[in-house]
Design brief:
The protein is an alpha+beta fold and about 260 residues long. About 35% of the residues lie in helices and about 20% in strands. It has two domains: about 15-140; about 145-255, Transferase(Phosphotransferase), domain 1 (Orthogonal Bundle). It has helices at about 25-35, 40-50, 100-115, 150-155, 160-175, 215-235, 240-255; strands spanning about 15-20, 20-25, 65-70, 75-80, 120-130, 130-140, 145, 180, 190-195, 200-205, 210.
């Protein structure tokens, strides 16, 4: 893993507008997206509605759904883009603009191209409703992966738990080495996939995140403290015992020193 993300652009984004619809797409997904009918307003509405009617887990993350573009194409994971914070419910699922979404897809594309443990971005789809927007952020679906909340709630065996914790520590550390300050690092924004004998982990939802120099010790501690608070808030600290916590820190320290 390189210690910096290249300054040059690593993926070209194109923006298309059709009536009230905006489609912002990465290079690999323009052709399959067009084959599926995007950015047509009717098709865009279908994708947005699919997300609205999708899964809304107790993890507190936005509703999500998977859809298929065309034959021989990977599944696309659709995440409804919502305002966060305690004022979020007042927006009723709308956004005031698309600036933060554009920043998120650009950042995700740069990190993915650098080999960082983030999902591959596909496109943003948005539709204007008056002066506000409904929007979704779409990435390549990672099969068999679940967020860390669901993973812990499933009661994994101790060996699997330690492998997953170590993988999560490596994933977070690799992003910190690249200079990523995650805007909201909590259990719901860690994806875990069980694989024998190891596990894999990804960091997701980079809304409000930004790149800079490698993190200082204070910044690292602040980010890791947020993860710890997330464990306590969800009542999962006991399911992630001392051995798993040590495994996370071992994975984090090893990746930081690579």
């Amino acid at each position: 893993m390189k210690s910096r993300v290249p300054e040059e652009k690593t993926s070209t984004l194109r923006e298309f507008r059709n009536r009230q619809t905006v489609w912002i797409v990465t290079d690999p997904f323009e052709a399959p997206g067009r084959a599926a009918g995007l950015p047509d307003a009717v098709i865009a509405e279908k994708w947005l509605e699919a997300c609205l009617n999708g899964d809304n887990p107790t993890s507190g993350r936005a509703p999500t759904r998977t859809e298929t573009l065309a034959n021989n194409q990977p599944k696309i994971h659709i995440r409804r883009s919502l305002h966060g914070g305690w004022l979020g419910p007042l927006w009723r699922g709308y956004r005031a603009g698309l600036g933060r979404l554009k920043s998120e897809i650009e950042l995700t594309a740069r990190l993915h191209a650098a080999g960082a443990p983030v999902p591959e971005p596909a496109f943003i789809i948005a539709k204007r409703d008056g002066i506000l927007w409904r929007a979704a952020f779409c990435t390549v679906h990672i099969e068999d992966a679940v967020d860390a909340i669901r993973f812990l709630q499933s009661g994994p065996q101790n060996a699997t738990l330690q492998n997953a914790a170590q993988a999560a520590g490596r994933a977070v550390a690799n992003l910190h080495r690249l200079g990523l300050r995650h805007g909201d690092l909590h259990l719901g924004n860690l994806l875990i996939r069980e694989q024998q004998p190891d596990c894999q982990a990804w960091v997701i939802d980079l809304d409000g995140s930004h790149l800079g120099p490698p993190l200082s010790a204070k910044e690292k501690r602040r980010q890791l403290d947020r993860l710890c608070r997330s464990l306590k808030k969800r009542g999962l600290i006991d399911r992630c015992g001392p051995e798993a916590q040590s495994a996370f820190l071992e994975g984090y320290s090893a990746a930081c020193s690579d």
